[in-house]
Amino acid sequence: MIGANLSTGSVGLGHVVASDVQSSFMIKGVFSYELFGQKLYITTTGVSVFIVMSILVIFALVVNAKMKKADEIPGTFQCIVEMAVEALDNMVSSNIGAKHYKKYVNYIGTIFIFILLSNVSGLLGLRPPTADYGVTFPLGVMTFCIIHFVDFKYNKPSGVIKSLMEPWPFWLPINLVGDFAVPISMSLRLFANVLSGTIIMALIYGLLNMVAYAWPAFLHMYFDLFSGAIQTYVFCMLTMAYVSEKLGEN
């Protein structure tokens, strides 16, 4: 990210830890470098995203290796993985339908796991990547692209135009605004909820640092775990609802 979007100055790796008394809820530069004469930063968000993605990749490799040697009588790890996959399959199938869900379960499952781990990464001492609009907005745009890919694929351009002109032709501009508001509303909802928890925890550690021992763990459980899981579910449910709406009776 460009330096103008960051708080002043470059900081050390210690500022990646959200619970550090000296750190704030602002995005900070961890490393700086120059490119074509412009000073750029590797930010706390970039570091957090890299850590989250590294955890997911390592977990995927471990699961893949374990599943290749899966036992007929599954162990604890295999049972947990199979239950998680089955739960995601059931969630997508029940919302999109058994006929089409296999086409979208990989995408929904991927963003579900990524958003969930990003939201709860505060428990690992990271600044949640989803507290940065630069992360949630691309997620909203990807969902927007999939929604309209499905719309054009199953309803054809004529059907898309017809739906935009319902219930009356002069409703077209309003329907267009509503369509383009989808990625903004989805991304802002996720971003605002996660950022609010990050700000509250930063204020608690900054203002009550003398007495902030043990009891903030309960707040972390709410803002990072409970609220994070709820926002993950909401984002994925909205994605599935929009896709299902475009599928219609197909």
TrEMBL record:
<keyword id="KW-0066">ATP synthesis</keyword>
<keyword id="KW-0406">Ion transport</keyword>
<dbReference type="Pfam" id="PF00119">
    <property type="entry name" value="ATP-synt_A"/>
</dbReference>
<dbReference type="GO" id="GO:0046933">
    <property type="term" value="F:proton-transporting ATP synthase activity, rotational mechanism"/>
</dbReference>
<feature type="transmembrane region" description="Helical">
    <location>
        <begin position="130"/>
        <end position="150"/>
    </location>
</feature>
<keyword id="KW-0813">Transport</keyword>
<dbReference type="InterPro" id="IPR023011">
    <property type="entry name" value="ATP_synth_F0_asu_AS"/>
</dbReference>
<keyword id="KW-0472">Membrane</keyword>
<feature type="transmembrane region" description="Helical">
    <location>
        <begin position="40"/>
        <end position="63"/>
    </location>
</feature>
<keyword id="KW-0812">Transmembrane</keyword>
<comment type="function">
    <text>Key component of the proton channel; it plays a direct role in the translocation of protons across the membrane.</text>
</comment>
<dbReference type="InterPro" id="IPR045082">
    <property type="entry name" value="ATP_syn_F0_a_bact/chloroplast"/>
</dbReference>
<keyword id="KW-1133">Transmembrane helix</keyword>
<protein>
    <recommendedName>
        <fullName>ATP synthase subunit a</fullName>
    </recommendedName>
</protein>
<dbReference type="GO" id="GO:0042777">
    <property type="term" value="P:proton motive force-driven plasma membrane ATP synthesis"/>
</dbReference>
<feature type="transmembrane region" description="Helical">
    <location>
        <begin position="104"/>
        <end position="124"/>
    </location>
</feature>
<feature type="transmembrane region" description="Helical">
    <location>
        <begin position="222"/>
        <end position="243"/>
    </location>
</feature>
<keyword id="KW-1003">Cell membrane</keyword>
<feature type="transmembrane region" description="Helical">
    <location>
        <begin position="194"/>
        <end position="215"/>
    </location>
</feature>
<comment type="similarity">
    <text>Belongs to the ATPase A chain family.</text>
</comment>
<keyword id="KW-0138">CF(0)</keyword>
<dbReference type="InterPro" id="IPR000568">
    <property type="entry name" value="ATP_synth_F0_asu"/>
</dbReference>
<dbReference type="GO" id="GO:0045259">
    <property type="term" value="C:proton-transporting ATP synthase complex"/>
</dbReference>
<dbReference type="InterPro" id="IPR035908">
    <property type="entry name" value="F0_ATP_A_sf"/>
</dbReference>
<keyword id="KW-0375">Hydrogen ion transport</keyword>
<dbReference type="GO" id="GO:0005886">
    <property type="term" value="C:plasma membrane"/>
</dbReference>
